Each structure stands twice: as structure tokens, then as C-alpha cells.
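== Folding task for one protein ==

=== Format: two labelled lines per protein ===

==== Paired sequence and C-alpha cells ====
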Amino acid sequence: MADYGDQFMSNGDYDDEMGGNEYDQDISPEDCWKVIGSFFERKGLVSMQIDSFDKFMSQTIKDLVMDKGSVTLDYGKHPEPDEINPVVIERHEVKFLDVTLSYPNVVEGDGVTNDLMPHEARLRSLTYACPAFILMSKKTYYAREAPSDSFENLEGMVTQGTDGMQLYWEVGHSNDDIPEDRPESVYIGKIPVMLKSGSCWLNQDPSKTKTARKIYRGYFIINGSEKVLIAQERSAGNIVQIFTKASPSPFTHLAECRSVVEGGSRQMSQCTVKLYRKSDGPDGTKIENTLKVQLPYVKMEIPLAIVFRALDIVSDSDIIEKICFDHSDKEMIDMLMGSLQEGQAIQRGELARSFIATRTSDNKMTASQRQTMANDILQKEWLPHIGKGADSLTQKAYYLGYMVNRLLKCALGRTEPDDRDHLGKKRLDLAGPLMTNLFRSLFDRATKDFFRYMQKRNWGDQKKLDKAKAGVSQVLNRYAYASTVSHLRRTNAPIGREGKIAKPRQLHNTHWGYVCPAETPEGQACGLVKNLALMSLVTNDVPVGPLRQYILEKDVETIEDWEPKLNSQATKVFLNGVWFGVIVQHPRRLVDHIRELRRKCIVDSTIGLVWDIREKEFRITGEGGRIIRPLFVVENDTTNARNGGPPPEEPCNWDILLSEGTVEYLDAEEEETAMIVMTPEHLNDSKIRDGGGIIETGDDPLARHDPLLTGANTMFTHCEIHPA
């Protein structure tokens, strides 16, 4: 790491030049190193892996089990011919009430359970894992074809069987191990524990942490072998991306959105809108510039106008209003004429929904079943991150219009297509999300051997090799301390190594400050396996639901109340990819207010705030997997290190620096809206130049040569903590 302390001019140099202390530095190189030291003292080098795993153990496991709720098993009885009013179905209902995790232990050969420490797991070739228990309650029900005496006494229920017969249910009792109506903890298996996490002995019992300082953190011990989970790179969800297609492709542009609902099921659905060169019209003629939408579970692409009418946006003027917010934009309206002509044969919502349902795999539905099928697809399966109820259809119509608007702007040459390799469009899955996906599939199959996947190099269900990820679990490199730290901060792009595509392997300009530009292996994995920079972190999911109601109270209109004809230049507000409101006037006030809340840590300091002035969008995201890094905050060409930081002789505290607005985290997308100066010296040079002063140039041939600042006044928003 380069030392840039010698290149700073002393305060006396400024005094001689400017005649006083007016341009004294507000932060010195020593202060920068204090801040760097406080960061590593608080965060370390593998805290992101530990934080991700802690969230999985403390919250995600319980959410997954509670989302499952219960399991119902029906057992058909075969009664005797002479039995009167026999039981035809026996039902067992098991409810999941809570999850309990213990600390790592081992069951000895004599049946005694002892605490298990990491060094003991290494020496005895054991797995450092903790047992997991689920608190369950069970009820048994019996179904008869006629009511019995106990049916009336127990207030039973009546349902209809598959054969049309009425079934009379009553509460019964079984002779199983789990008693009725009394919850009991049931052992479901063991979960490997990451060292120095919240579930590890090294982080709990001081009497057992004699070797804690000598043990590196952030890995697992599986059968005595040290294993590390490599962070997996993936595309971000809930964002719209526009791409171009060259000939001979039948379409020229593509709008794509991977809709992801975080939670127990983690539902994923992809929506694409394509701009075709030519397509067949309803009367057999060729129509230019038609737009078609791909819906889930629908075999054919649906014309855009028909999708809008299925959402009860019927008239052509209403469809244009949802897409082209400015009615004076004749170019964009002309581009929509082909799509409106293609859908002119269907002018009612019922016909549009029937049109969609008939293009699914089930062609033998009645009219009412077709309406139900289309409504289920549009409400529950299509763009599920916006909502899954009938009240979300208006928001989905606006979101579809937003996708088409972005697509047409790119087709008209007003904006550039998106870059797939932009770091802001990517996310990293650390130990928490990786183990969440594995626990979800294993719990669904009621499997107990959680750690056997770590014994193998593939991650995921072996029967679904297309979804399995290779090389996620690796043996920790112990050749040297640097190689161990490097292995714990490694990332992998799941792209075929045999391909010769160059762009994913190249160093992207958005990697600055987030990814090490030099450390990557040679050969097939070059550029696909990367390492994070030392001061970069990876975020966890942050709940941003309470922010929605708070923002709506700050002169923000919901999109249901917005009238594009009157306020076509309003700024759109997104929360985790969901467009829910618009700012009609003065968007800077809201942006500055939310940013101030983040700098005071009233809202989480890792939340991303992107104000895209050109596109008139304000995007707030608390999504996990974003790569962030800290920077000094600059206000009025002065860093806040002296305003809110400790005196120079006192040590820094990273949490205080964050809460007082001295430093803040930025991700790759938000960094594109910031103006960052490389060093505090450059910031002072800018102030001198803005004040009419002259900057002296030194004669040292070994001095660092940096690009000159522009002559115009520059308003910086952030400053690098260290230029390396």
C-alpha cells in the first residue's frame, strides 16, 4: 500500500502563500491512518462472512420454518365391510412453532454429550456443528362419511371429498411419540458452525477462548478439514436492464427484469419485453416495431396492448399514458402505434385474460377457469416483488409501462443500453444466502444430513446438476497468512471456464475500490475468480418496509394518485426495485433528508441511495449482496472528520465516525452520482484554486504526479480515505 503522507504541503506553506490559516487542512495523513485502523479493528477482514452467517442462524432459519407453517398428512383407511360408519381418512397435522439452536457438541461413544471446541474437531476429524431442534405440536383428525356422536360434541367440520361425498371430521388421538396438544422439541439434524460467529464457543465462553486469538475466522470445520465458502456472483434482481440484439435476431431491443421475492420460498420470476422488427398483424399484414411480453407459464409471447387490457387498462389513451408520461413526445408515441394496432382485435379485459389463459399448457378450461388462471398468473406469478394481490395490478401496469419507456428510450437513441458487467448490477451470495438455499431444499425434503454437501465440491441438489454450483466449498488455503485472508475474501462468477468470452473477464471501471485489480488466477479462471479490496464489505438484507410509509408522508404521491398528464416530469421513487410513488416538486429535499438520516444512522448505514437526475429516479435499496466501501463525507469542500471526529490525539471509533457523518458507505451505483476527490491534499488544492490562490509545484523527482484538477469550481461530495 502506497504511503502518500510525504506529498502533503505543510500548513506553513499555505500560510506563506495565502497569508494566514484560512486554508488549513481539516484532516491530516495521520488521521487517515487512524480511520483505517479503526475500520479494521471494528470490521476485520472477514466480518462480512460472519455477519451473513449470523443472520442465517439467528433469523433466516426461523423465517424458513415459520413460512412452512405446518405439514398435513392424510392416510386413507380400508374399513371392514361390516363396520358401521368407519373412519375413511386419518389426518395428522404437525405445526412448527419455534426453532432452537444449541452450541457445537459431540456425542461420545458412551452416549455422553460434551461441548466441542474447534481445535478438538480438527484433531479428532469431527464436524464443528450445532444441533437444531424444532418445537412441534401435533393433532390427529378422523373423517367419516356420516356424523358420529363425538362429531357434535367436538364441533367438527364438514368438507367434500374427491369423489363428491361429504366428510365429517372430528378430533382424535394417536399413539405416536409426540403427545397431542403438547409441544415438544424434535431434533432435525446438525448445522455446521462458522468459527467466531454468534453460535461458536470462541465467541461465547471466555474460559474456552485461550486459542481464539490464534485462530482465523470465517470458515467451517468439516470432518477435521477447514472449509471456506466462496462468495458467488449473480445478477441483481428487481431492476430493469435494457440490452440490444444484432441481426439476424428478430427483435432489436430487450427489457429484462428478474423479479425476486425474498423470504421463505424466495420466489423468482423473469419478465421480458421485446421490440420486434416486424411481426404479423391480426389481418395478416406485417407491422413494424411491435412490443411483446413474455409471461410466466405462458408458452407464447403476448402483445403488449393485450397485457395492458388484461390488467384492466383498456383504452389506447390509458395505455399510452402508462408508458409515455409526456404526451408531447411524438417520437415515442409513434413507436407505440404498431403495438396498439397489433392488439386492436381484443378490446376488453375478459377477452384479454382469456387470450392469455388459452396459451398456457392447459387447453381444456372453461371460461371461468380461464379467467381464474389468467388472474393467478398476473397477480401471483408475474412481477411478484411488487405484490401478489388484486390491489397490486395498477402498480404492475405502471411498472410494465416503465419497462417499455426505458426500452423505447434506448431504441430512440436517447439512452445507452445497460452494461452486464457493471458492478452495481451484480450481487454476492455469501455464507448466509448459500446456506439458506441449501437449508430450504433440505428442510423441504426433511433431510438431516446438512453438512454432507460440504464434503462434496458441488453445492445444491445433485439430481439437478443444472442448478448445482461447482466449487463453492473449498479447503482453506493455509500456505501463509496472506493466502488465508485472500481465500476468505474470494469471489467466483459462475460462468463456464471453457468459454472464450472476454468481457466478463476484463477489469471494469466500476471495480475501482471494490475489487482487487491484480489478484486473479492465471488460466481458464482468469478474471472470473476475483478478490475483494481490503476495505470493501458485502451487505446483508435490510428491512426497508417502514421507510415506505415515512416517505409517503414527505409530500410524495402514490402512483395510483399520480396524474402523468399534469406532472409528467415527476421523479419516480423506488424502494427495493418497487416503484411506489412520485415526487412532484423539489426532489432534492427528500434525497437530502433521507441521506441525512443515513449519516446519523437513524436508518441503516448500508442502505443505498441513488438519485438519477437524468432519468428522474430516486432508488432506495436495502438488498443484500451489494459491495460497499467507506469514504469521507465532504460538505462545503470540507471533510467532516474535524467537525464530528475526535481530537487528533485520541483514537478513532468506527461506529462514532459513522453515526456522526464523518464517513459513509457507498456502493458502485451510488458512487456514480458522487464527486470523489482522491486525497485531502487535492481537496485543499481545490479550495485554494477556487479562492484565487496559486498551487506550488514541488521539484521532487520522486513525487507522485496526479492529474490536474479542472479550472472550473468543483463541488466534491466525498474524499478517499486512502488512494490505494
In short: Residues 1-25, 447-457, 462-466 have pLDDT under 50 and may be disordered. The first helix runs from residue 11 to 18. The chain has 20 helices and 33 strands. The two ends are 6 Å apart (CA to CA).
